[in-house]
Amino acid sequence: MKKHDIVIIGGGAGGLAAAQGASAPHLDVLLLEKDARLGGILNQCIHTGFGLQHYKEELTGPEYAQRAIRELEGLPITIKTNTTVIAIEKTTDFTITYTNESEGETTIRATACILTTGSFERTRGAIKLPGTRPKGIITAGSAQRYLNIDGYLVGKNIFILGSGDIGLIMARRLTLEGAQVLGVAEILPHASGLTRNIVQCLHDYDIPLYLSHTVTDIRGAGQLRGITISEVDANFQKKPHTEKHFEVDTLMLSVGLIPDITAFNGLSFAKDNRTNGALVNQTFETSLEGLFAAGNALHIHDLVDDVSAESLLAGKHAKAYLENKNQKAASHIDVLVDEHINYCLPQRIQCTQDTDPITFSLRVKAKHEKATLKIMQGDKVLMTRKRQHLAPAEMERITFKNVDRLDDQTPLSLKLEVS
Amino acid sequence: MMYDFIIVGAGITGAMIARTLSKYDVSVLVLEKENDVGNHATLANSAIIHSGHDPKHGTLKARFCVEGNRLYDTLEKELKIPLLRSGGLLLSRNAAEVDTLKAIYENAKLNNVPGMKLLEKQALKAKEPNISKTVIMGLDLPTTKITYPWEVALKAMENAINNGVFFAKNTEVFAMAKTENGFDITTNNGVFKSKQIINAAGAFAGKVAAMVENHVPYEVKPRRGEYLVLDRRVKGFLNHTLYPVPNNKGKGTLIVPQVHGNILIGPTNTPQSSLYATPNDVDALSSIKENADKLMTDIPYHQVIRTFAGVRASIDHEDFYIDYSREVDGFMHVAGIDSPGLTAAPAIAEYVVNSLIKSKTTLDPKPNFNPNEPECTMYHALNTAEKKAAFATNKRYGKIICKCERITEGDLMQHITRTLGADTIKGMKKRARVGSGLCQGGYCEHETIKVLAKASNKDQTEIDYYDKDTPVLLKETKVKL
Ligand SMILES: Cc1cc2nc3c(=O)[nH]c(=O)nc-3n(C[C@H](O)[C@H](O)[C@H](O)COP(=O)(O)OP(=O)(O)OC[C@H]3O[C@@H](n4cnc5c(N)ncnc54)[C@H](O)[C@@H]3O)c2cc1C
Ligand SMILES: Cc1cc2nc3c(=O)[nH]c(=O)nc-3n(C[C@H](O)[C@H](O)[C@H](O)COP(=O)(O)OP(=O)(O)OC[C@H]3O[C@@H](n4cnc5c(N)ncnc54)[C@H](O)[C@@H]3O)c2cc1C
What we know:
The complex is a heterodimer.
Chain A: E1 2-9, H1 13-22, E2 29-32, E3 48-50, E4 59-60, H2 61-70, E5 77-80, E6 84-90, E7 94-100, E8 104-115, E9 119-121, H3 124-127, E10 137-139, H4 140-150, E11 152-153, E12 157-161, H5 165-176, E13 180-186, H6 195-202, E14 209-211, E15 213-219, E16 226-231, E17 244-247, E18 250-253, E19 257-259, E20 271-272, E21 277-278, E22 291-293, H7 304-323, E23 331-337, E24 341-345, E25 348-351, E26 358-364, E27 368-377, E28 380-390, E29 396-400, E30 412-418
Parallel strand pairs in A: 1-2, 1-8, 2-5, 8-22, 10-18, 12-13, 12-18, 13-14, 23-30
Antiparallel strand pairs in A: 3-4, 6-7, 7-8, 9-19, 15-16, 16-17, 20-21, 23-25, 24-26, 26-29, 27-28, 27-30
Helix pairs in contact in A: 1-7, 5-6
Chain B: E1 2-8, H1 12-21, E2 28-31, E3 48-49, H2 60-79, E4 83-84, E5 88-92, H3 95-110, E6 117-120, H4 121-127, E7 137-141, E8 145-147, H5 149-162, E9 166-168, E10 173-178, E11 183-187, E12 190-199, H6 205-209, E13 223-230, E14 241-244, E15 254-257, E16 263-266, E17 270-271, H7 282-292, E18 304-312, E19 321-324, E20 331-335, H8 341-360, H9 384-393, E21 400-402, E22 407-408, H10 409-417, H11 425-432, H12 445-456, E23 475-476
Parallel strand pairs in B: 1-2, 1-12, 2-9, 5-14, 12-20
Antiparallel strand pairs in B: 3-8, 4-8, 5-7, 6-7, 10-11, 11-12, 13-16, 13-17, 13-18, 15-16, 19-20, 21-22
The structure holds flavin-adenine dinucleotide (2 copies).
Residues 8-14, 31-34, 38-42, 45-48, 50, 172-173, 200-204, 208, 225, 267, 310-312, 337-343 of chain B line the site of one flavin-adenine dinucleotide (FAD).
């Protein structure tokens, strides 16, 4: 059985940056990607809006992917595309089984492993839509893939459920391709995609956005014929007599992404039920020693730039793990959040001599204008940051520098003071 | 050509009858309006091979359920169908329910259900750790099994075909006329002639019968059953099929392990007028949860991946209606096949052929009848040596199409080229489970379309999702990367 130092699973923006971070002349790094090409979801995002932070330039998804791939040139990294990982187990090190058309099912070993497998889309079943189950109900990412990679349109008259970014971008894309987008319904009282996408993809094309509305009926036997949306109250219960009917052949769902950690059922590591991904410390190591996670496989990101930044760090930490394998962390402290914050990563901090700054990524539960974020230990305020605008759709990142001031007994807490 | 028998409908009932008839030297044609076998009740049900405890003693349902349950052990060997011997537990939560439970126990003894035992709380908890605290007594029904009903119909039909039966899909019977020595059967694919007709049209049996009879002796009263499906990653949460004691509205909400590891919760039991439309309604789904919570604690509802509904072909009689027409010679009803129709199907087929048909027609056994079908094992279920051998002959076993269910391109090819191969996305999903996992096709549907198109030399826009004229891809666009 072949043995590698670090195996990275998934070659999207996350995996590419992780490989870059992990690479070193004395280390054997292997990157495994299921698709024929590297880049992951970026390859189907042919719109611009990528890379402003990471490359200081506005790029399309495929251009961003090309940049990231080019950064690996000359680095001692083995890359296998068309290769799917189907199982991982952990004994003293990791046993990874992958398969491809040239080697068949193959098992290898690795000392450290980084999960950058991206996400999958929430489907109809997961949100329990009522009505019949005809053909014509499709997730936005699938429709995007059919259109941008395979070159096919999935429908002519389209309604979109959910105001996530992918749905918004597809509303514009489908309109430009000659389809009719009749509207977007969002169950929450506010949109869940980025503000710039609401403006550039809906307003600019006169596509109505129905806030506090959801789909309450689906019609059609073999083929979708129509849908009904209704207004909902604060408890998401349908308000009577608010129905609006639309004749459509396609209902596109943009109702969220979920970290894809399905290939890792054979591993037991702690999960965070708010992110649906792994629980990690500031080195992106999960509760299972030597297992790291980053990118959308860890928690869902709005911006690829954040994916790259985070994954690069995860790669570097995996490399450090290999180099200092014998130094074990003495203790951990938990990171707690208050009732205004939906989740925060890392969920725990490993107390070491290391005083590298820690970047917290968090999402709030509701929109706030003017709020103060505080990092505290007990009653002690360690850091304060004012924010003019916070929204669930926009991930907030704050960097905490005074790591040497942390005491290793008291949990760290993040508090949001709202006016 | 004049067939000896035409069977209308290729659900599990029609398929089993076709297979049983294929043991004899007669010509048989099965007509099915859909583009595949078993797309109606046989696709959407609880998948339980019931022990036969609850149908009233003396009915055909009771007799065929117990007999059918036994015959499944033979089908497992011959057709290589999956059979999970989960056993069943009938659960009661108060004194009144205990009385009902004991009455069912007595009925079940009369029906000759084997191996039953009354169990107290402690013993139940040992068998089923997540059982609700409120359950006080249970009846152990060890012969209760689970299968994949749609595959049973598929394999039975394939076996019938391999033994000489003809099968026409996409062929809907519109009209039938009695002729001097048989029937003319008009379909969208022309007129077929047959000496006898067996009506196995499920919920449509009333409509089909009305094509020849003036007074159909039953009326179909369709009833919808809705379900929640939990992902197969919940495996281990449940061991047995759990039944509540039945109420006046039928069997009640069951919790059922499935052969692939998923758990089904349901069904509801709602009258509806349509034979087709099976919408899920929100209230029904919440009532399912409410009922299921009476039997088990901490059901992982966050693992729900799908909802679905099926239509029962219930009639205005309590029992199945299986007999030759009193009005038209040579026309047979196999109607009212609601629960436990799945369990009963092999026994119904024996009864139809050996008791009804043989009472008026001589059947000569076919010497070369082969009851066996080959195993159709998925690549991931092979052992290491078998995998190596399969990969050596076909590199496409190395390529994963469906990540969630670990299905390779080689597996898809096997399901395209079998006797009744897949030609739609849904047809592939039913045969190979492509798209049955967490992503529900998000990752693999586009790959499946490509494999189907290539194998059939079609354009990708010609690949249907489910029914006729339901392509996923509408048209090619200008931009192609
Ligand atoms: C439709 C859409 C539009 C977006 N628009 C923008 C935008 O305008 N601007 C912006 O900055 N950001 C945008 N984003 C966000 C950003 O692009 C993504 O968050 C980022 O690209 C995700 O990178 P990733 O590597 O985590 O995941 P992915 O790109 O999904 O990569 C995961 C990779 O892992 C592979 N994989 C999975 N399982 C296995 C396995 N078992 N074995 C081998 N390989 C496997 C997959 O094939 C895939 O290539 C968008 C995201 C989406 C989905
Ligand atoms: C919700 C639910 C749960 C159930 N659970 C169980 C269970 O756990 N255990 C059990 O034993 N039983 C169960 N049953 C019962 C079982 O599913 C049915 O009894 C069985 O599937 C009936 O099979 P069938 O072949 O008679 O009907 P179907 O499967 O409905 O087949 C009839 C076929 O006839 C075709 N057809 C109709 N009209 C025409 C026409 N004019 N021309 C050509 N073809 C035509 C249809 O297209 C269809 O394919 C359940 C049923 C339901 C609905």
